[in-house]
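Researcher: Go.
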Amino acid sequence: MFRNLAIGALSVGKDIGNTSNWIRFPYYHHIFSDEMRGFERQIRYLKNFGEFIGLNDATNLLDTRKEIKGRYFCLTFDDGLSCCYKYALPIISDLEIPAAFYVVTNMVGKSFEPESIVSRNVFGFRGKYTSIDFLTWDQCQTSAQAGVTIGSHTKSHRRLSELTLSEVRTELTDSKLEIETHMGIVCEHFCAPYGFPGEDFDLQRDGQLAREIGYRSFATGCRGVNKQGDSSLALKRDHLLANWDIPQLRYFFSTL
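Model: Structure:
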């Protein structure tokens, strides 16, 4: 409650429309059934201020190194949870919003109880959730047919900073190959688990390795805008929760 009031106060006088010439990446981990209304409200709100584009188009804009004219949003979802397929995909399909699901390939098709070690310690889910269910490959295929890009979130969701270079290479390579095998597409986009450079991964080491392996983009969890000259191998993204009120979005997305 206090956080909502504080950010609501900070958002007074803020206006996303006063900013321009950027790409921003709103991202979520989950959309549960009781979050659908809030999620749709947020997406409709952001749609008032910019065009939603897919991950390939966003990467292309950054890679041209030309000035980005206007305001663009690129929507992504981390972890590959099936709730995003069940409750977010119908909404973004109806609104014709492209998106990307970053999947952890070792978790595809699996389910865990909320108090399991995987749920609590690997993905940080606690409390009210009945189970943690991950996308199946069939759901990934259906999502791709609906315009969703399937990217890699590693094979095991391990923190890259705790791994050797060889182990990081295995995480990035094996997950890419498995996605390509099951999906029949080239997997070109990677998202680092946990998300913060210097703490959770070495952006220089792991970004260069991602490029060598064949990824075109490397997504982080750092907030902010992506503008002309920024690298697609260091994407800044804005984490959202679907139950946040609109003033919180106004505050975050009007701040450069």
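Model: The first strand starts at residue 22 and ends at 24.
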